[in-house]
Amino acid sequence: MRHIRIFDTTLRDGEQSPGVALSLDQKLEIAHALARLNVDIIEAGFPVSGALEFEAVRRIASEVKGPVIAALARTATLDIDRAAKALEKAEKPRIHVFTSASKIHLEHMLRKTEEEVLEMADEMVRYARRYVDDVEFSAQDVMRADWEFVKRLYEVAIEAGATTINIPDTTGYGTPSEYGALIRRIRDEVVRGRDVVISTHTHDDLGLATANALAGIENGAGQVECTINGIGERAGNTALEEVVMALYVRRDYYQAYTQINTREIYRVSRLVERHTGMPVPPNKAIVGDNAFAHESGIHQDGVIKHRATYEIMDAELIGRRPAVLVLGKHSGRAAFKKALEDLGYAFPEEKLSQLFRRFKEIAERKGPLSSDELMALVESEEPTAHFFELAHVQFFSGSGLLPTATVRVRTPQGEKTATATGDGPVDAVFKAIQEVIGFRPELETYRVEAITGSTEALGQVTVRLRHGEFQAVGVGVSPDIVEASALAFLDAAGRLASGRATRHPPTLEEVQKELG
Ligand SMILES: CC(=O)SCCNC(=O)CCNC(=O)[C@H](O)C(C)(C)COP(=O)(O)OP(=O)(O)OC[C@H]1O[C@@H](n2cnc3c(N)ncnc32)[C@H](O)[C@@H]1OP(=O)(O)O
Ligand SMILES: CC(C)C(=O)C(=O)O
Ligand SMILES: [Mg+2]
């Protein structure tokens, strides 16, 4: 098995994502998280580009231990001087010198001839080697460049002392077979057995970044440049989590491994999402919300019978909770039954079919149901006659006023009225209801949703109450949220009072108490 080095460039190419500007503290926090992930190299930034960037690289170099810390530099002495200065305290510093290889870059961007670029590459790699032993060399846009020039350029860089040669498909133009062939050619015709690591750097303009990186590995690359969540210039870079998990899950095929602590992947992904403000799409491989969720009945049935029927890796492996079954319009009986069992219900087949039909009708109209909604569905199918009925609710609140509510409720013992104050109108209403019904269930969850999308939207309130060892869910709907809350509370309290509640699973403390 070959070791593939993971070069993380979230803090450099990743931060080049339009609109992203990380603070010093955010960069440091991400760098520490990358060290816990055990990446081999952290590209901490491009020091010449600004004072904050310089300081971030300097702090990361002095504080983050473990990985090699790399800093980017153009083929210019000032860039290399700044990179070297920022890396002064690094245990394992690397200077990453880059130029360009394609005609279009040379003519229109660098405005240099091939000979001038060769000379700059030679001089600047040598210059960087005066500061550090570990120098990486890249030539942008290799995929669109002429092979003869690419060959000469990388040959010059190796002769000048580059220890890693990176082959960027800067514009995301290559296909996997082309990029793979290019890496193979670099290995056979440029590196020729010398002790130089070949690195991939692929962009996702055609959605091929990960496929291209893997093709590079198959053809001799020993380092992959990538970012968390695949962020980066334009459509982004190769996603670290994708390449790492592809190498792990298909180690039989690639015969290669990384040293990544995969259980940290999800945590770092969330951190980068939060700090960059770039949301991870739900269908994103490995780290998206749906990556380990199943809604289709056939898949759910398979997963319940044997996880591996529809899962090629365990969610826990990347630090996520186990796969979830989403109960929606595509779900089948098996998943529905399992969800009810998980909530503590067991029904005969006939009753289950009746509940399942009702569930399908609702899910087709409103989308997936949460477990509270499922409980409400089951309980609303019980013989109901409301035990407590709201006759009247009145409340007032406002700035400088003590929120106060009065409720009148029809109970089996007749109509009762109570007034209470609270932290807000809903709290005051709940306290007044507790007075009226004569017991004090604990509010475990409270959720408000708009049922329709306009300003006169109907509000749906779902509460879960607990009393002793019983719990019940109640739902209330009204254009007035406070009234919907009163209805929901009375619905759940009625279930508790009339013995139509479920026994809740014991808490850890209760089990410990029972066991003495
Ligand atoms: C593919 C990549 O990701 S490359 C990295 C890209 N990242 C960034 O650009 C982010 C940080 N960049 C910056 O802050 C700024 O662009 C700086 C500080 C680097 C340079 O700023 P400025 O001096 O204002 O130059 P500006 O950005 O307008 O133009 C880039 C200059 O660098 C030159 N250049 C580009 N690449 C290289 C290179 N590899 N080697 C030498 N010079 C280069 C360009 O030809 C241009 O030079 P010119 O001004 O003589 O025409
Ligand atoms: C600086 C280089 C490696 C780069 O990011 C690219 O070419 O995409
Ligand atoms: Mg790039």
Automatic annotation (TrEMBL):
Class of the enzyme per the UniProt entry, highest EC level: transferase
Gene symbol of the encoding locus: leuA
Species annotation: Thermus filiformis
Cofactor: Mn(2+)
Record keywords, A-Z: Acyltransferase, Amino-acid biosynthesis, Branched-chain amino acid biosynthesis, Cytoplasm, Leucine biosynthesis, Manganese, Metal-binding, Transferase
Binding site for Mn(2+): D13, H201, H203, N237
Subunit: Homodimer.
Presence of keyword Acyltransferase: yes
InterPro entries, per database record: 2-IPM_HCS-like (IPR050073), 2-isopropylmalate_synth_dimer (IPR013709), AIPM/Hcit_synth_CS (IPR002034), Aldolase_TIM (IPR013785), LeuA/HCS_post-cat (IPR054691), LeuA_allosteric_dom_sf (IPR036230), LeuA_bact_synth (IPR005671), PYR_CT (IPR000891)
Name of the protein in question: 2-isopropylmalate synthase
EC numbers: 2.3.3.13
GO MF entry, a single one: manganese ion binding
Role of this protein: Catalyzes the condensation of the acetyl group of acetyl-CoA with 3-methyl-2-oxobutanoate (2-ketoisovalerate) to form 3-carboxy-3-hydroxy-4-methylpentanoate (2-isopropylmalate).
Single Gene Ontology BP annotation: L-leucine biosynthetic process
Region (Regulatory domain): 389-516
